[in-house]
Amino acid sequence: MKPRLSDIARIAGVSKATASRALANSPLVKEETKRRVLEVAKQYNYQPNALAQAVATKRSGILGFCMHKSQHPYFGHSFFGPMLDGAIEEARRHNYHILVAPADPANTTFDEHFIQDSIDGVILATFTPMEPIQEFRRRNIPLVLVNDAVPTPNNAFIVQDEYGGARAVMRHLIEERGHRKIAFISDRLSHLSYYLRYLAYLDAHREYGLEIYNNPKIKLGNVWGNFPRPDRQKLEMLGQKVREIEGTPIIIEGNDSSQARDAVYPILMATDDKDLPTAIFAATDSLALGTIEAIWEAGLEVPQDIAVAGFDDLPMSAAFTPPLTTVHANPFEMGQAAVQELLKLIANPQRESAIRWVDTHLVVRKST
Amino acid sequence: MKPRLSDIARIAGVSKATASRALANSPLVKEETKRRVLEVAKQYNYQPNALAQAVATKRSGILGFCMHKSQHPYFGHSFFGPMLDGAIEEARRHNYHILVAPADPANTTFDEHFIQDSIDGVILATFTPMEPIQEFRRRNIPLVLVNDAVPTPNNAFIVQDEYGGARAVMRHLIEERGHRKIAFISDRLSHLSYYLRYLAYLDAHREYGLEIYNNPKIKLGNVWGNFPRPDRQKLEMLGQKVREIEGTPIIIEGNDSSQARDAVYPILMATDDKDLPTAIFAATDSLALGTIEAIWEAGLEVPQDIAVAGFDDLPMSAAFTPPLTTVHANPFEMGQAAVQELLKLIANPQRESAIRWVDTHLVVRKST
DNA sequence: TTGTATGCGTTATCAT
DNA sequence: ATGATAACGCATACAA
Questions:
Q1: Comparing C-alpha atoms, which of B65, B58, B54 is closest to residue B98?
Q2: Least enclosed by CB within 10 Å: which of B24, B74, B157, B159?
Q3: Strands A307-309, A97-103: parallel, antiparallel or unpaired by DSSP?
Q4: Interface A-B: count of C-beta contacts within 8 A
Q5: Arithmetic mean of pLDDT over chain A
Q6: Which of B297, B307, B223 is CA-nearest to residue B264?
Q7: Based on the domain organization, do A176 and A289 belong to the same domain?
Q8: Nearest residue on chain A to B319, judged by CA atoms?
Q9: Do B323 and B345 sit in the same domain of this protein?
Q10: Are residues B198 and B238 both part of a single domain?
Q11: What is the pLDDT of residues A251-302, one digit of tens each?
């Protein structure tokens, strides 16, 4: 059977304490003894029981990667899969492991069996309400949030430059392509990422002295869904501030290309030619692709009649016809950054909260 | 600070043993006492230390999901991401957690710190050499292989119906579309999945009395790469047998669409029109997409001049122009099946090895 | 029905 | 430099 530390100690003719020290390469133990213990350990293919080590040291070497989401896709999602990869690679580099744990939002508190006391730190990869965040805090579990920021001490926040990326899209559309009537389509703006992209959309109009696209045929849907809108404090942390809704953004309840297609097509058909936008900025690639389909169905060409730009740079966006102009995101890098910040927090739990920015950049292709 | 079992016991005025039993809802303890203990536990927000439970019970409730692969993408891969999701969902349903652990093939043995003694079972999601498999066996760690099968007792194998899916493609090409000159392009055939698809390609020719496509302009590359070819025993387990290479498959060292494009284009240009295939079956969607690009560059049309079919049904394949005819795979379902079989193995380690098949099905779109 | 004592496999403290 | 022993937090066999 599996050899225990006591077995190795006995065979090597030392105490458990010495054996333990020898295996940990402690300077306290004589080279000669150390050599003997290691030899026995190797011979018997001894591997320490990590669980027992964990309870003894109060350190498990496990990081939790949580998604507060009730159903898949979790890592089948083209953003979170690569993010997990980045986290895995960085964790591995520092001899940590990753435990994946979707947490059903139905349970507002994380009563996850394993999470509770056995994890050295946690990464929350999706938007999470305050309650579980406070719970981690009460339990002194170091915490990193991805794509979110909350006014609590001793946390880290990994956010990609949504605003900057979206501004780059608008600059491209306006300066390089000369558009002046640009529509915006998005999932609900209560999602912080989308809200920031919308802010950039608005601000770009102001920068260039443009009127915001207004089409009475678009009726403003439920802009926030059932979620609270991003608050002043949170936006301030990200260097932004609350703005009122202007113009006529097309709001979809979801991020599905078919929903986008179904929403955009009737709008295109109902709108007078002169009121048609010359470009559409979609808050996500998925919506951009659906939008392009709707444009085709309406008998128009992309980008000749209407240009379309997205955000995310999904793998399929480059292969699409026409290849999509979009903002390249770096989920892998975000995963790496999340683990890096988490390890800093574990090393120093009193570390003050900090925001870590991950860059985005515009990729111009054929759809604009 | 965090309350311990001993705290709860003391406050509730019972022994640790009784408290432990009460929390486990043991029928041994009086309802009245149970109620009191649970109340105290709730009041103090007690959560058991899963690590300590694990060492005491020798059961961690953690399942390892290993990928024997030296670099990403791990779960950013469109096949393994959804597979992990399936595993997560099924594990969650049975109160298990998943620890993700890429294992560098450079270390042929899994010296992964945590894996060794602290995991109730393991899923190997990528091809893995025999050595680590034997190692898990020696350590009595229940093991499930995905898309592979080896002649060992007490394991489970989850395999998708590669052969059946590929036969369906060939039937479609030959019967419904009338093709008689069908080329095959693939990553190295030492990969079991691809080899099985190739076998179906060969067998379909035999079924319909067709000659296998032969093009002297295609020089047979390194069909197996540096890996061992699938052996007789393994194929027998899967109901197949070893066949010699016939015809002129185009072999790429990798599964990259650009590699496929670069390989196919010169072949198309060098081949006399009369010797051109009328259809190409690509062993993966990724290769299919690259093949289509090469066909365009050669000034030909898909599917009018050459039809193309793939295998995998990547998300991007449906959005491609033309939408790709392919075989739909179910990685999510494979992940679920893997956990189900693993839990059976944990419950009964003496369970005899079994193969669990996961269906595939043809999806006909515009590329054929 | 409950309590006592021991075990799980380590690390850490305190002697020697 | 090494060993005896406690501690980590819980589960459970055995006693009562």
A1: B65
A2: B24
A3: unpaired
A4: 167
A5: 93
A6: B297
A7: yes
A8: A320
A9: no
A10: yes
A11: 999 999 999 999 999 999 999 999 999 999 999 999 999 999 999 999 999 9
